[in-house]
Structures are given as structure tokens and as C-alpha cells.
């Protein structure tokens, strides 16, 4: 089995993270959701890496807006959701649930996880213990339902929560503090959530990022993974949408 990839979070816009995965043995460098091409290219260049593959979770411009710049600079092929092919430019290889993509020496499984968008996919790298969940599963939260139904998102989250505990999860946004403020409001007196909120507050006060997270932490503290059914999930999601 290949050693785990070197992973770098590239901050972009106000709260996005673009993820770089690098294999030192082969030099393969994948970028996940390059909303800002210049930021992704600069972060790779600063490390002496050349982006060789683009992976896209869903069509939203803050995840796809930098594809053209990355491809112009590197010629890297672009892999992303076939179901959203018409919603963004530059998709070379369309992916559907159950497909596999070679990412350097690792294999990514493609999971269709609709809810935030209808074609949203996640990249799961079981041999490296990694998951890239885009705007579906966040640390302490989940994506808004822009296109899908509560049933779809509930099923997508249940599926992601079934990953092994130690799986390291890489969402695409730094929403963790706001997510745990809501979690503490929705589950007052819950010690696990209160402890995580305090930890996240410390990290943000120090200017540190709160990601990645793990499936174990999310199962223990993410309120959206506690909903027993889609109806309760829907009411929790509505509560978060109006929470300030
Ligand atoms: Zn999105």
C-alpha cells in the first residue's frame, strides 16, 4: 500500500478550502474543487508540485471557477460528476456512483451523495483512509439543500457516516464554528457537543483551521448524523437555515 498522501488545505475566498493531495514517490498532485485557480496553482508551485489531476465534487462556481486556469497552466485532466456536466465547463471524465478513479497510487471510489446539489459526488480513498466530501458533510454540519430533498441528504449523510471511524474527512468549507454554535443550541447540555464547541472556539480564536475531521468525531458530535429519520433531519436542517 502506498504511504498516505501529503495533503495541503489552500484557503480561498472567505471560507473555502481547496485540497491538494501529493504523492512524493511519483510527483502526482491532485487538486479537489479549485474554485480559485490562482490560489491552487500558487500553493502547488510554492511546494515545487505540478497539478496533474483535477477532481470536482459539484458544479458550484466556488468549487469549479478555477478549472480553466489550472488546466491552462498544467493541462491536468478534470474528473467530476457526469450528472452535472452541463452545469460547469471543462469536465473531461464524467463520474457516477461506484466509479473508481486512480489518484496517483491510490484509488478513489466515487459516491453519489445528492442533497446540496443533485449530482454531488464524494471521493473516498479507502486505502489512504480519506474522504473528500465537498459541501455534503461538513465538520459539525452538512450542506444546505439547494437542489435535493431532505430524504436524499439524509441518505447521503447516513452513507458517509458508515465509513470507518478513523476515516479523515476533508470538507470544502470552514463552517465549523457556526455549525457547533447551532449544535449546542439544538442539543443543550450535550457534553460531547459542548466540548467540541469549546475546542473549535479555541482553534478559531488562534486563527487555526478546524479541518480535517474524522468520521468518529462527526458520529459523536455532528447533530445532522443524529437524526433518526429524514423528517427529523429536515426539521434540524430548517433550524440551522434560520439560526443566527
Ligand atoms: Zn456548493
Written account of the structure:
The structure is a single chain. The chain is α/β, with parallel strands linked by helices. It has one domain (6-241): 4-Layer Sandwich (Metallo-beta-lactamase, Chain A). It has helices spanning 37-46, 61-64, 67-74, 150-161, 176-186, 191-205, 215-221, 230-241, and strands spanning 6-12, 16-22, 29-32, 53-55, 78-81, 93-95, 100-103, 106-112, 121-125, 130-134, 137-138, 141-142, 168-171, 213-214. The strands form three sheets. The protein has a six-stranded mixed β-sheet, covered by helices on one side. The chain has a six-stranded mixed β-sheet with strand order 7-8-9-10-13-14. It has a two-stranded antiparallel ribbon with strand order 11-12. A hairpin with an 8-residue loop joins β8 (106-112) and β9. The mean pLDDT is 97. The structure holds zinc ion. Zinc ion is lined by residues 58, 60, 116, 135.
Q: How many β strands by DSSP?
A: 14
Distinct ligands: zinc ion
Number of domains: 1
Portion of residues within helices: 25-40%
Radius of gyration: 17 Å
Low-confidence stretches: none
Second CATH tier, the architecture? 4-Layer Sandwich
**How are the strands of the largest sheet arranged?**
1-2-3-4-5-6
Determine the number of helices (DSSP H or I, runs of at least 4 residues): 8
Q: What is the approximate shape?
A: globular
Cofactor: Zn(2+)
Protein name: Hydroxyacylglutathione hydrolase
Catalytic activity: an S-(2-hydroxyacyl)glutathione + H2O = a 2-hydroxy carboxylate + glutathione + H(+)
Subunit structure: Monomer.
Amino acid at each position: 500500500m502506498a504511504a498516505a498522501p501529503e495533503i495541503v488545505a489552500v484557503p480561498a475566498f472567505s471560507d473555502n478550502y481547496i485540497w491538494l493531495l501529493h504523492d512524493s514517490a511519483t510527483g502526482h498532485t491532485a487538486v479537489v474543487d479549485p474554485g480559485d485557480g490562482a490560489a491552487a496553482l500558487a500553493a502547488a508551485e510554492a511546494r515545487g508540485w505540478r497539478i496533474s489531476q483535477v477532481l470536482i465534487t459539484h458544479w458550484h462556481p466556488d468549487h469549479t471557477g478555477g478549472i480553466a486556469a489550472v488546466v491552462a497552466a498544467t493541462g491536468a485532466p478534470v474528473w467530476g460528476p457526469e450528472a452535472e456536466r452541463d452545469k460547469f465547463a471543462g469536465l473531461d471524465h464524467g463520474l457516477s456512483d461506484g466509479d473508481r478513479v486512480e489518484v496517483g497510487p491510490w484509488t478513489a471510489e466515487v459516491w453519489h451523495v445528492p442533497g446540496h446539489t443533485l449530482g454531488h459526488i464524494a471521493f473516498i480513498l479507502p486505502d489512504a483512509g480519506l474522504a473528500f466530501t465537498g459541501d455534503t458533510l461538513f465538520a459539525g454540519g452538512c450542506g444546505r439543500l439547494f437542489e435535493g430533498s431532505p430524504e436524499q441528504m439524509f441518505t447521503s449523510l447516513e452513507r458517509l457516516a458508515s465509513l470507518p471511524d478513523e476515516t479523515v474527512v476533508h470538507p470544502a468549507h470552514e463552517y465549523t464554528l457556526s455549525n457547533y454554535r447551532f449544535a449546542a443550541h439544538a442539543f443543550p447540555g450535550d457534553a460531547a457537543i459542548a466540548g467540541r464547541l469549546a475546542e473549535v472556539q479555541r482553534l478559531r480564536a488562534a486563527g487555526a483551521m478546524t479541518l480535517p475531521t474524522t468520521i468518529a468525531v462527526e458520529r459523536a458530535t455532528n447533530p445532522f448524523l443524529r437524526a433518526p429519520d429524514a423528517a427529523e433531519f429536515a426539521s434540524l436542517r430548517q433550524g440551522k437555515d434560520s439560526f443566527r
